[in-house]
Amino acid sequence: MERMRRRVVVTGMGAVTPVGIGVEAFWDAVKKEKTGFAPITRFDATDYKCSLAAEVKDFHPEEFMDRKAARRMELFCQFAVAAAGEALKDAGIDMEREDAYRIGCFVGSGVGSLEAMEREHRKLTEKGPSRVSPLFVPMMISNMAAGNVSIAYGLKGKSLNVVTACATGTNSIGEAFRAIQYGEADACVAGGTESAVTPLGIAGFSALTALSFSSDPERCSLPFDRDRSGFVMGEGAGIVVLEELERARKRGARIYGEVLGYGCSSDAYHITSPAEDGAGAARAMRSALEDGGVRPEELTCINAHGTGTHHNDLFETRAIKLAFGDHAGRLRVNSTKSMVGHLLGAAGAVEFIASVKEIQENFIHRTVGLRETEEEMDLDYCMESHGEEVPYVLSNSLGFGGHNASILVGRYRG
Q1: What pTM value is reported for the model?
Q2: Is the dihedral of CA 75, 77, 81, 86 positive or negative?
Q3: Is position 311 annotated as part of the catalytic site?
Q4: Labelling 74: which of 103, 152, 300, 325 has CA 20 to 30 A away?
């Protein structure tokens, strides 16, 4: 006999992004089609092929956490703690009144801290092994985002660091959804965080030819455009509070939307390129819809992975056509990365928040910068924003290594 699954709703959201700190600042910027692209300021990028990034501006960690605690965290952890604090406050959760062992923490990072690796490696080579910081390892490893969020807010339930490259944020929220569905937790703080705008990060992705080498902030991150040439590195965090429905109702929580379905697959094809026929991503999308009990023809909007690389945008288009058949041509397909760049492990989480806001406000945002696409890519990629009924959004994330994740969120209907 199939075990009954509990319903899961979104009751809090927090964001640190290149276009705004806080969910309202982020969403206001998205509606106004603001972009976060500018010359790199974190280091001297004169000799690098890539000169642009989407950096978080005016982030002051002491505004979100104790100064001493902040000094023991790398930037990716600071972003996560700040966004998680906003999400918990937004949800109205008072941890002093909660059973902390029933509140989980699913916060992932695809990379961890490259900055810590670079800094401590310099000490090693210039001054010797005795000068490497005793905090190097706990500041660098990617699970410390979940660790620091748990410590900061007293979350003692199931705690996981999902690492699936660019699918990390979506998988983190999806796994938290599953944990609540099947009773492992009553609520979870979930999402992704990343800070990889560093010399090694930019050099590495440049060597892979994954980044745009454009020097024009207006024409650099161009998902689905015929002139797309790679993604722009972004950074930040997206964190949500997911909660079992009856618990949320009982405490009078504001409900933003309902998580309905979650699907995953592996391309088992190539370490960086998606499968050319899109079969893996198509399976993840169909699995999420089936999990949520939503027919393909009921869906009207997809928040695409939409990186702005040649292969991703073409193969994701093929995946959508494979998953939806003739209905693909009636879907709105947009990319939040056209404004914030690619936040790697945080991308799916920030895009999930954008998806929830689209449902809330019946507003599908534009894929900014898109002017003209190409022959095989003939879907509606949202050259303009649309004000219309948005009952569901399917959010896609596709990670290096062939990780495909899709999550379906819908309007809460009681």
Answers
A1: 0.97
A2: positive
A3: no
A4: 103
Catalytic residue among 188, 220, 342, 382: 342
Does 342 qualify as catalytic in the annotation? Answer: yes
Pairing of strands 20-21, 52-53: unpaired
Distance CA 148, CA 150 (A): 5
Active-site choice (77, 105, 166, 220): 166
Catalytic residue among 77, 188, 264, 305: 305
The owner of tokens 């410390």 is 144
Tokens of 30: 């998205």
Report which secondary-structure segment, H or E, holds 387.
Answer: strand 386-387
Per-residue pLDDT of the chain (414 residues; tens, 9 = 90+): 345 789 999 999 999 999 999 999 999 999 999 999 999 999 999 999 999 999 999 999 999 999 999 999 999 999 999 999 999 999 999 999 999 999 999 999 999 999 999 999 999 999 999 999 999 999 999 999 999 999 999 999 999 999 999 999 999 999 999 999 999 999 999 999 999 999 999 999 999 999 999 999 999 999 999 999 999 999 999 999 999 999 999 999 999 999 999 999 999 999 999 999 999 999 999 999 999 999 999 999 999 999 999 999 999 999 999 999 999 999 999 999 999 999 999 999 999 999 999 999 999 999 999 999 999 999 999 999 999 999 999 999 999 999 999 999 999 998
403 catalytic per annotation: no
Which residue is listed with tokens 């992975």?
Answer: 305
Q: What is the DSSP letter of 217?
A: T
